[in-house]
Design a protein that fits this description.
- The chain is mainly alpha-helical.
- It contains ten helices and no strands.
- α2 runs antiparallel to α3, α4 runs parallel beside α6 and α9 packs parallel to α10.
- The longest helix has 17 residues.
- It is elongated, with a radius of gyration of 23 Å.
Length: 195
């Protein structure tokens, strides 16, 4: 028995040390780590941090936003859309434009153009000067161009032109004819590649 005591004591000491440092991270710390990994294009690792944060606080929209953006970058569109939708149900004054902008991009990729515009409008309604702050060069202009692309796909060339003019006020085209529509399409593509 005397020889076993040191091993039993060592086991008790190890057991009583409590949770690991990883388990002690708070919701905010996990979200911060998630965005740091996201900025380094480590999307799988970022996704893991955001999921851990969401397990700590299922009402925290920021974790849902991070999960959505990570899934978007991983081309997991259905999972991204589900995360953004879940985050939007936690709506309060603090729900960021970033969540709705990400959702708008996902819906566009899924060819849900009308729904994409709804989310884009929500993003711009929350923050008309939105800038994505996590390593990708997205901002309000990208959201306007996204709306222009959506409206064009829906055949609403007048609204598409209005969205383009929000980014490039000097652009002009007669969108009532095919020549003007072609010019509008070319300008949308130009803006998508130059922004």
């Amino acid at each position: 028995m005397g020889k076993l005591f040191p091993f039993v004591l060592a086991g008790l000491v190890l057991f009583s040390c409590g949770p690991t440092a990883e388990e002690q991270l708070t919701y905010d710390q996990l979200v911060t780590e998630g965005w740091t990994l996201f900025q380094s294009a480590q999307y799988d690792s970022a996704l893991s941090k955001f999921i851990q944060a969401g397990a700590i606080d299922p009402t925290g929209y920021e974790a849902y936003s991070g999960i959505g953006w990570s899934n978007l970058r991983l081309d997991q569109l259905s999972s991204a859309a589900s995360s953004f939708q879940a985050g939007s149900t936690q709506f309060n004054a603090d729900v960021s434009a970033t969540l709705f902008a990400g959702w708008a991009f996902v819906l566009n990729a899924q060819k849900q153009y009308s729904n994409s515009n709804t989310r884009a409008d929500q993003a711009l309604g929350i923050d008309p000067n939105w800038i994505f702050e996590h390593g990708l060069s997205y901002d309000k202009d990208h959201v306007h161009v996204l709306k222009a692309e959506n409206y064009f796909a829906l055949g609403d060339y007048t609204s598409s032109l209005t969205a383009v003019k929000a980014v490039n006020p000097s652009f002009s085209a007669d969108v009532t004819n095919s020549t003007g529509q072609a010019q509008l399409a070319a300008e949308i593509e130009r803006l998508k590649t130059t922004l």
